[in-house]
Automatic annotation (TrEMBL):
Descriptive protein name: Aminoglycoside phosphotransferase domain-containing protein
Lineage of the organism: Bacteria, Bacillati, Actinomycetota, Actinomycetes, Propionibacteriales
InterPro entries with a match to the protein in the record: Kinase-like_dom_sf
SUPFAM superfamilies to which the protein is assigned, alphabetical: Protein kinase-like (PK-like)
Superkingdom, taxonomy of origin: Bacteria
Amino acid sequence: MTVPPLRLPQARRISWPFLPPEMRSAIEGHCGSPVVSEEACELGFTPGFAALLTCANGSQHFVKAASAKAQRGSAMSYRAEIAVLRCLHPDVPAPGLLWSIDSDWVALSTQYAGGRAPALPWRAAELDACLDALESAAALLTPSPVAAGPVEDEFAAWPSYWTAVLPRPHLDDAAALAAGFAGHCAGETLVHGDVRADNLLILDTADGTRAEVLDWTWPAEGADWLDTVTLLALARAQGASGVDELLATRALTRDVPAEAIDSWLALLAGYFLKSSDDPVPPAAPHLRGHQRVAGEAFWDWLAARRDWL
């Protein structure tokens, strides 16, 4: 089948003037200078505030914020990210936490080093840099430094989602693969859980291209290869070439049994295809469309690997 293009999601966010005055004052206090301009982060789905702030003293700060009441889901995800960032080894390729606030609003600031989202279609060097970052992170995050829930518990309901997916050839086979995911995907590594192009940052340095992993808002403990397979599946749908060769040669995936890879792909496909038919959140109008295309991306690679096409 032809999978629709998987584009970078566009968020609908609040801007700096619409933050409560007391929140703006608290943020400026942490920044050490009044804010004079903002550059909004347009990627993602959450409706919370996310922007690069420039202050009167010339300093720049990347800040995210959400109302604990009006944007409860975003606030909860920011709390999860704060808990993870506080425990990350300093060598993990991720922006470090500078400060956080947890009151009526939840806010955090992370180190800002410039950079950009990966180019789409994927360039080989940038995909390699992102895979290198995932391998470095896995090595430093095993065992998990954070008390995150195990994937077999966090995703326990997902195999049943196949019952809500519209009929297609081999649906029962995919459901059976997903049902066995816990035996394949358990582990002691802190898994990011949401690795996709808009959660990765490309940095071009004098020593070459490197990548950082952003937005640690859905952590879980699982096998060290899960994030790599997730990224490869999505990159395959975004024009990356040689994905099967990368799967067979990268350090985290080359020795993983095919049945384990396919169980993870089946689990993700079922989750995203089912979720794409859920009601559209008013604050994230593009979410369901993205989930549909992502679900088809996981399904398409699974079907190709299982000779279902």
